[in-house]
Each structure stands twice: as C-alpha cells, then as structure tokens.
User: Which sequence fits this backbone?
C-alpha cells in the first residue's frame, strides 16, 4: 500500500476493521503496512471533530495537517501520541473520563520498537513480557514489547484503577499495533536489559 | 478530495466519512467499556426510526467491498424489514455480497435473534436495539441512570426482579433480559429471547448493539462474561419447548430440529405446528438432508 492510500476511505475502512479486531482481542498483533501503525490508526479514526495531542512532534507538520484533528493539550486531548521509549512526564495526567461519561478517557498511542506474541518477535534487549487477562482474552495472552519504558505500565495501572474511568492504550510499532483497553489486566513477568 | 459516485448516486456505504469516523470512534470506546452505552450523533437515515437505523449505521460504518452480509429480522431473511435493509446495503455498497447463510457472512445485522449456528472470531454480529437502557423501567432520568450505571448500582433493578418473583414465583421477562457484562454494566440485550442470552457469554465473535433513535452504541466483546441477572436460588431458564401432551420436545415441522428456538404457528384448521425461528439455519438443515437423500438414492 502506498502512503497516499491511507487517505482513501476504503483503506481507512480496512484499517478500522483490523483495529477494531485488535481492540476486541487485546494483545493480538494487528499488522500495519508502510508508512506504519501510527498513521494507519490515526487516519482511520481522526477528523476535524476530535482533538489530537502530539507534544513530541512524532508526526511532523505535513502529516499532522492531513489528519485534520485540532490540537489540544495532552491533558485534555481525546487522542495523545507519545514516544513510548521515553518515560511519561512526571506531571502528565491524561483525561480519564467521568463516572457518567467514561468514554471521555483518552486513547494513548505510544510508539514502541516491536510487539509480538513471544520474545523472539520482540528482538530488542530491553523488552517486557506481559500476561494479559480480561474481556477479549480467552484465558491468558502473552505479549512481548520492546522499546516501552516500564514506567508507562506503572502509570497505566494507576490510571485504570478506578474502572470505568481510565485510558485505552495502543502500542504502535513500525509494522504492527496492539490495543490494551482499560479493562485488560496486565501482569509483567520479565523486564530484561539495563535500567 | 473527490468522492466516486456510484450508480445509486451515493458514496460507498451511504454515510459520509465524518459520520463513519464518529461511529468508528464510538465503537472502539464501546469495546473498551463492555456494556456501556456510548452516546453518538445518530444520523438521519432513509428509513424510519425504529426500523433498524442504529444497526444500519453500524453496518455501514463497518462494511467494505470484501464483506458478505446477512440481514435477519426475527430470524427470517425474507421479511419486509430484512429485505429492505439488505437491498439498501446492496444499493449503497457495490461489490459486497449478501447471503442467507450465517456461516458465509462476515457481517450479520439482526433484529431480535442471534443465529443458532455459533459465530466465529472473523464474524461481527450487529444487533438493532429499540431501547438500550435496562434501567429505564426503574429510573426515568437519564442523568440519574448514567450515574447508576457508572457506579454499577443496580439495586432498584434487583428490587424490580424480586417483585416479579413474589408475584409469579419466577422472573417473567421473556425477552430483553437484563444481562451483566464483564461484571460491571448491565445491558438490555435487545429483544432477543432468553434462548439467545447465553450466546453472549464468552463468545468467539464481537457483538455490537446500535440504538438509532436513542443514539447509543454498546458492545459485548468476544471472551467476555455475560451473565443474566438472577437470584442464587432461582436459576435462569431458557424457553421450554416440551410438548405437555407427550412430554417430548416439539420438533420443527420443516427440518425436524429438536435443538432450535421454535416459532409456534396456528394453521387455518386451528392445528398448532412449530418451525425454526432461524430460517437460514432451517434451510441449511433441509439442504443437508436432501443432499444426504440424493447420496443414498445414488448409492
């Protein structure tokens, strides 16, 4: 698929179906074609009516314009794009929604190096292996992620502690994404590498 | 950006891109919050409110040219509402196929039934919903209902069910049976019979619910607990098709099935017969029987 194709309704429909399947089955790898999972996800769901925060400038000005979404501060935006390799800013608190309107909780899109169902698929030395349970998971599902700073998982645990409030997370590697809705229970079993 | 106009004069899927994207964002949040009614800006459709506009909008936001669609109305593919909705999909989504066979469909839009054949992981069932909120019977204020849902406070619904028990010795709800999803939100599963409620529990497929008039979308993801509200000492029961005269179960008059949800029909002579409610399922059984018959005759 050429990059330009992400801007056609049919490509966005196909992308959305793959993403929806990924949300319905947390931790499963949703393959993304070039130019990658970040754009595949955002082009399928964004338009002028929802806000996007990209405080680190992950997208670049041209793509940012094409996505049409107005910019909002990271604490208020419905979609927040951040570099998952770096720890979350100390004061960063995303929107968690309210008891009456929990859908106001943000969707965090974190860029990582690789996602896979086993360690061999995530080849970097700094990887975490996650064991997932909850809606959409039959029993337990294993997910290996490389290039995700472990502080994200600790902060997420706090953000999703008061269900139905919370954030829904998408981990975006260059070639695939995985979804971690707020309902997913995560147990971290291995953190390799140097910290 | 130019839109390709087709023979019907509409863009693919009838809805404009902004409508589809809003539906898509709402669907993702619905999956992240199993059973929670996500509000959305339900669009005007060229069919009347109450005839499946919520389900149709979901279908149109999901559908692509490679999909195969089945439309069910009370189990039947050939009733007026199902035929109209299916023709609308055919008109506005060129390239898509339609089918009466649940096994062939990638997308199934349904009113009041879940197919008998267990659905697979690569299928999505879209249910048309007239009344999305099970708390409406005990609380008229939507604001209060939203708080009750958020807190998982269903005490007044339990009282209502208990009153039923006191009057009738069992909970008398025949359809729209309140069902708790993933241990938190209670949903109105749309007017499906009790028979279909267990199919929501730990399923392989994704269930999406669309209420067009009430402007709500909700979901039951695959592998998710869906538990009908019942008291510990009175078990949840599905419809009983035992013939009181013989003590045996009624069978479908067409295909002979003794394990499907049956509709009772009264003929002109006043005789009662039963038929599978799921017409597609019944047809498949009949086809399989006639194929087996042909094989036997050829042998």
Assistant:
């Amino acid at each position: 698929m050429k990059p330009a194709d992400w801007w056609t309704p049919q490509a966005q429909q196909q992308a959305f179906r793959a993403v929806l399947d990924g949300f319905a089955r947390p931790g499963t790898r949703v393959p993304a074609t070039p130019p990658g999972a970040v754009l595949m996800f955002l082009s399928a769901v964004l338009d002028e009516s929802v806000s996007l925060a990209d405080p680190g400038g992950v997208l670049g000005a041209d793509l940012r314009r094409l996505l049409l979404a107005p910019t909002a501060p990271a604490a208020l935006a419905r979609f927040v794009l951040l570099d998952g390799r770096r720890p979350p800013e100390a004061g960063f608190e995303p929107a968690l929604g309210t008891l009456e309107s929990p859908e106001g909780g943000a969707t965090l899109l974190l860029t990582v190096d690789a996602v896979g169902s086993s360690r061999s698929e995530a080849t970097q030395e700094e990887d975490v292996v996650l064991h997932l349970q909850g809606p959409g998971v039959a029993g337990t599902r294993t997910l290996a992620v490389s290039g995700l700073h472990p502080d994200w998982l600790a902060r997420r645990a706090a953000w999703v502690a008061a269900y139905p409030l919370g954030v829904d997370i998408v981990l975006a590697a260059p070639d695939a994404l995985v979804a971690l809705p707020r309902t997913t229970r995560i147990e971290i079993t291995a953190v390799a590498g140097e910290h | 950006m130019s839109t390709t106009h087709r023979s019907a004069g509409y863009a693919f899927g009838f809805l404009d891109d902004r409508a589809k994207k809003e539906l898509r964002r709402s669907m993702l949040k619905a999956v992240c919050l199993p059973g929670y009614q996500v509000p959305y800006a339900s669009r005007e459709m060229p069919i009347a409110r109450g005839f499946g506009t919520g389900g149709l909008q979901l279908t149109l936001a999901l559908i692509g040219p490679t999909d195969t669609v089945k439309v069910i109305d009370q189990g039947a593919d050939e009733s007026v509402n199902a035929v109209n909705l299916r023709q609308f999909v055919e008109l506005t989504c060129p390239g898509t196929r339609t089918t009466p066979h649940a096994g062939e469909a990638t997308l199934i839009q349904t009113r009041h039934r879940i197919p008998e054949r267990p659905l697979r992981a690569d299928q999505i069932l879209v249910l048309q919903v007239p009344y999305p909120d099970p708390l409406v019977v005990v609380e008229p204020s939507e604001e209060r209902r939203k708080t009750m849902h958020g807190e998982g406070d269903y005490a007044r619904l339990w009282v209502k069910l208990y009153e039923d028990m006191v009057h009738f010795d069992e909970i008398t709800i025949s359809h729209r049976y309140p069902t708790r999803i993933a241990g938190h939100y209670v949903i109105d599963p749309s007017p499906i019979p009790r028979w279909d409620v267990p199919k929501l529990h730990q399923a392989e497929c994704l269930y999406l619910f669309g209420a067009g008039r009430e402007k709500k979308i909700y979901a039951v993801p695959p592998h998710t607990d869906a538990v009908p509200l019942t008291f510990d000492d009175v078990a949840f029961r599905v419809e009983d098709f035992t013939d009181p005269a013989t003590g045996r179960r009624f069978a479908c008059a067409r295909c002979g099935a003794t394990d499907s949800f049956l509709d009772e029909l009264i003929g002109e002579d006043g005789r009662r017969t039963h038929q599978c409610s799921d017409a597609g399922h019944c047809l498949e059984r009949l086809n399989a029987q006639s194929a087996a018959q042909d094989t036997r005759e050829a042998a």
Chain A has one domain: 9-190. The longest helix of chain A spans residues 9-24. Chain A has four helices and ten strands. The helical segments of chain A are 9-24, 37-45, 61-66, 151-159.
